Amino acid sequence: MRLLLYSLLFALPLAAQNPALMDEVVRDPNEDVYIGKKEHIAAGEQLYSVACSGCHGPEGEGGRGPNLAIGPAAQNKRPTQIHRSIKNGVPGSDMPPYGSLPEDQLWQLTAFVSSLSRPAYEMDIPGDSKAGQALFYGKMACSNCHMIRGRGGALGPDLSNAGLQNYVLQLREGVLEPNKRITPGFDPVRVITKSGDTIEGVAKNHTNYSMQLIDRHGNLHLLETRNLQEIVFLKNTWMPANLTERFSADEIQNVLAFVSRQAIRVPSPDDAGAEKESN
Ligand code: HEC
Ligand code: HEC
Q1: How confident is the model over 209-225, as a mean pLDDT?
Q2: Quick one: pLDDT at residue 230?
Q3: pLDDT by residue (tens digit) across 248-273?
Q4: Ligand 1: does its nearest atom lie under 6 Å from the Cβ of 66?
Q5: Ligand 2: does its nearest atom lie under 6 Å from the Cβ of 169?
Q6: Left if phi > 0, otherwise alpha if psi is -120 to 50, otherwise beta: which for 218?
Q7: Atom 22 in ligand 1: residue holding the nearest Cα
Q8: Ligand 2 centre and the CA of 117: distance in Å?
Q9: Would the CB of 76 count as within 6 Å of ligand 1?
Q10: Considering Cα of 221, then 225, then 227, then 228, what sign does the dihedral take?
Q11: pLDDT tens figures, 12-37
């Protein structure tokens, strides 16, 4: 109600003055035809890999052009605005106009770029998620450290909702380059107690007086800092950083497919972009 009032009072007069806000209002009906549609996203990905990946990175991670998955260049932009940027380019920058492409290709590109900033769950990551499940609990031993719906270890983050909490890019990074960004609340630490015991694990809560530490076997320690000789925050996560050396590309793809399918609340079909069945 309050929101409605605000929009009545402010948004319309502002939109009339400010062309950037006007963009929010005008919605191209092509959004319904292309956005969130698997076949158009796939076609857009092909075009993207030829025309755009050189500047925006193979997965939209950025380079000469900005990151299109995380950050202001794509997130929270309406597809209509993304379409316009691709068509007209960004004057005064390196972003060229693609207005010479047929309209359907422009929309396919828009569908792909928009998909980059949707949760991984919606993106139909290729791979065999059943095989990935077996790997997760078996050969790859992810479950030693990660819990899904109450089953597994506690050293790493609970992955029960990983498909909805992460973009594809974040998920790939989380699995393949875990030291690039250590998940908040999972800082790797080693402490030595005054009685000479060494405990290694992740620091959950840490004040000047106390620390909650989950050790590498998943046990919780409530420590008082006055009983500690030494606290060392480590540079590298406990999450194995060499998966690509130990497992095949297929195995990694399968485990990514499995993790991307994890959602606590499966989005309803009316939620934007979610148009596939769960398994
Ligand atoms: C030569 C390098 C280059 C190429 C090729 C390129 N871009 Fe860009 N792109 C950029 C740069 C640089 C920006 C940042 C522009 C700015 O300053 O806002 C950008 C911005 C964007 C934006 C955000 C625009 C906005 O409104 O903020 C989108 C979306 C985008 N590019 C999509 C694409 C797509 C899709 C393709 C391929 C069809 C592509 N780009 C090809 C360099 C490039
Ligand atoms: C030895 C323990 C351990 C094992 C084994 C392990 N992880 Fe992790 N993982 C962690 C820890 C600790 C973190 C949090 C710190 C970080 O960001 O690396 C983490 C982070 C992650 C993240 C990022 C989660 C987020 O919310 O940011 C993902 C995804 C992930 N792991 C998936 C996997 C998968 C898939 C496997 C099996 C191939 C695996 N992990 C094996 C300990 C482990």
Answers
A1: 95
A2: 96
A3: 999 999 999 999 999 998 766 555 44
A4: yes
A5: no
A6: left
A7: 73
A8: 22
A9: no
A10: positive
A11: 444 444 444 444 548 899 999 999 88
Ligand 2 nearest-atom number relative to CA 188: 12
Q: Which of 140, 172, 235, 239 to mutate to test the pocket of ligand 2 (most atoms within 8 A of CB)?
A: 239
User: Smallest Cα–Cα separation from 111: which of 79, 143, 135?
Assistant: 79
Half-sphere exposure of 158 (CA within 13 A, CB side): 8
- The answer on pLDDT for 47 being more than 90 is yes
Q: Which one of 140, 142, 168, 169 would you pick to mutate in the ligand 2 pocket, going by the greatest count of ligand atoms within 8 A of its CB? A: 142
Residue with tokens 């819990």, as numbered in its chain: 147
pLDDT of residue 43: 95
Token digits of residue 94: 């390196």
- Residue in this structure with the two tokens 């909702």, named with its chain if needed: 161
Q: Tell me how far apart the alpha carbons of residues 221 and 201 are, in angstroms, rounded to a whole number.
A: 10
The amino acid that residue 145 corresponds to is C
